[in-house]
Amino acid sequence: MAFVDLQTKPCPFCAEMIQARAVKCRFCGEYLKSEKALALEAEAEAEAEANPDLQVQVPKDEHVPKDEQVPEDEEIDDSILFAGRPSLWGMTPTIVKGLFFLAVAGFLVKFPIEDFTHKLPNLELTEHHVLAIGQCRALAGFALGTIVVLIVSLRILKLKMVYYEISADRIELSRGVLNRRVDNIDMFRVIDLKMRRNLLDCIFGVGTVALETTDKTDPEFEFEKVRDCRYLYDVIKKASLAADRKTGVVHLE
C-alpha cells in the first residue's frame, strides 16, 4: 500500500488548512491563483521572513512516536463560544393546544352524553343503541388523548434534538430525530442579526436571535427560544465582525 504525504497550507483569505496544490478554497470559495491571493501570500511570506522567531517548526508524524501522535480530529481546537438547545418554552402554544384537546378527550371519556338522548324529540333509541353510543364516545376520547400525547411528545423530542454550536469561524446546527442533519454557516457570511423577546420571553429568560446571511441554503437563520439570548447576540456580533476583518469581507447594502 502506498502512502501519499499531502502538503497543506493556510488559505490566505479564511486561514483554514487546505492542500498546497489547491486552486480554490473549499471553505470560503475564493480562488487561490488570483492577484489578490498571490498578494496576500507574498505579504504573509514577507512577514514570516521579517519575524523568524514567530515561526514554529513542527516535526512530521513519521519522526514522532506513535504513542505521542495526536489524532487529526483532536488537533483542531476551535474554541466553542456558545452551545445549547432551544428551551421548552418555545413549545408553549403547542402545549396549550394539547391541554385543550386533552380536556376535550377527558370530557368524552367521563361525561355520559348518551344519557341525554332520550330528551331529544322524535329520537327513539333502544338500550343497545345507547350502550353502543357510550362505547364509541369512550373510544373516541381515548383515541383523541393518545393522538394528542403522541403529537406533543414527538414535537418536544424534535425540538430537543436541535443543537446549536458556535465557534469563532462558523455556526453549526444539528437537527433531526431519525434522519440526523448537520448544517453550518461561515461567520463572515452573517450580514445582520436581530433579537426578539416578548413579555413572556423576558419573564422566563429566553429569546429568539434571527440572522440574515449570504448563504444560499439558509439565508435566514433563527435561534429559537434559547436561554442567554443576549449573550448569544453579543457573541455572534463580535465573531462576525472579527471574521469580516480576518477575511477582508465587505458587505454592501
Protein described:
This protein is α+β, with helices and mostly antiparallel strands and 253 residues long. It folds into 3 domains: 8-58, no CATH class; 90-159; 163-247, PH-domain like (Roll). It is built from 6 helices and 9 strands. It has helices spanning 35-50, 72-75, 92-110, 127-160, 199-204, 229-247; strands spanning 8-10, 17-19, 80-84, 163-167, 170-175, 181-186, 190-196, 206-213, 220-227. The strands form 3 sheets. Strands 3-4-5-6 form a 4-stranded antiparallel β-sheet. Strands 7-8-9 form a 3-stranded antiparallel β-sheet. The two termini are 54 Å apart. Residues 54-77 have low confidence and may be disordered.
The number of helices is 6
CATH class membership of the largest domain: Mainly Beta
Strand share of the residues? 15-25%
Mean pLDDT: 78
Main-sheet strand order equals 3-4-5-6
Shape: elongated
* Structural class determined from secondary elements: alpha+beta
Termini separation: 54 Å
Q: Kindly give the count of domains.
A: 3
Poorly predicted spans: 54-77
**CATH H-level superfamily title of the largest domain:** Pleckstrin-homology domain (PH domain)/Phosphotyrosine-binding domain (PTB)
CATH fold call of the largest domain: PH-domain like
- Please name the CATH architecture of the largest domain: Roll
Main sheet properties: 4 strands, antiparallel
Estimate percent helicity. 25-40%
Secondary-structure element order, N to C:
EEHHEHHEEEEHEEH
The total of beta strands comes to 9
- Rg (CA only): 30 Å
